[in-house]
Specification:
By secondary structure, the chain is an all-alpha fold. The chain has helices at residues 2-26, 56-60, 75-94, 98-120, 126-143, 145-173, 180-192, 197-218, 228-241, 245-255. The protein folds into two domains: 1-96, no CATH class; 121-256, no CATH class.
Length: 256
């Protein structure tokens, strides 16, 4: 039965991943996600149902449009595969629980953020606001109103701390050091985790982003690195590993 659920969550994830691709590519451009129907961006060929099967359609068509034969981006099957795997891992980690709902919400946020930020260097507010509301509602249903209000306070605290870091960074570097969306994402981090764990999230995000920054420096290219996807990925790592402040402090005490 467990294998059946793993397969089910993977398939469900690939379907959602395909939908998230459409949402993340259309919403920043203020295009309806309902109309027009899914179509080729090059020749406007309206896609049939068998051209929309996640991963499989892309492979069967050899990564090309069936009508104009233009090569399609590998971002589509990659996003579908990644979402499917992350949905599977979510179920494996949390089973049927409130934490599973939060995990699926965070995974969905990660996919939306990474597709939007990598393509446009923009993260629409709704990609952060809606998941934040969902996480808050789930927390209240699971742990009660008081815990929900506590996490809301943590979210505001993390937001303010990150905002202060941005002001200091802007002052030091004489330019924008952090995007507004990156700061808003810290509100979601605070809603989800204990407040001090946001330090771990930022640290992990910086570590993940470092190789790209070094590569661009090596190539002598000045480029804005999308930090939002790394922040959400750091949040996913901390949430999935179920780290707590108490465990971190106890391990640090053991080291010293």
């Amino acid at each position: 039965m467990e294998v059946y659920y793993y397969i089910l969550f993977f398939i469900m994830g690939t379907i959602f991943g395909s939908f998230y691709n459409l949402v993340a590519l259309r919403v920043p451009k203020k295009i309806s996600i309902v109309k027009p129907n899914s179509h080729c961006d090059y020749c406007n060929h309206e896609l049939k149902w068998y051209e929309l099967i996640p991963i499989i359609s892309f492979l069967l068509q050899k990564g090309k449009c069936r009508n104009c034969h233009t090569k399609l981006s590998w971002l589509y099957p990659f996003t579908e595969m990644a979402t499917g795997l992350l949905f599977l891992v979510s179920y494996y980690s949390f089973g049927f629980s409130y934490d599973l709902l939060i995990a699926l919400t965070l995974v969905s946020t990660f996919i939306l953020v990474i597709v939007s930020d990598l393509n446009y260097l923009i993260i629409p507010d709704r990609f952060i606001l809606l998941p934040s509301i969902i996480v808050l509602i789930i927390t209240i249903l699971d742990k009660g109103v008081l815990i929900g209000l506590r996490q809301l306070g943590y979210g505001l605290l993390c937001f303010l701390i990150m905002y202060l870091i941005m002001l200091i960074g802007n002052k030091l570097f004489k330019k924008e050091s952090l995007g507004g969306a990156d700061i808003k994402l810290m509100f979601l981090v605070g809603l989800t985790l204990d407040p001090l764990l946001f330090i771990i999230v930022v640290f992990l995000a910086s570590i993940f982003a470092l190789p790209i920054a070094l590569f661009l420096l090596y190539k002598n290219r000045e480029h804005i690195i999308p930090f939002g996807p790394f922040l959400v990925f750091g949040l996913l790592v901390v949430f999935f590993t179920k780290l707590s402040i108490q465990e971190i402090l106890s391990k640090m005490l053991m080291i010293f």
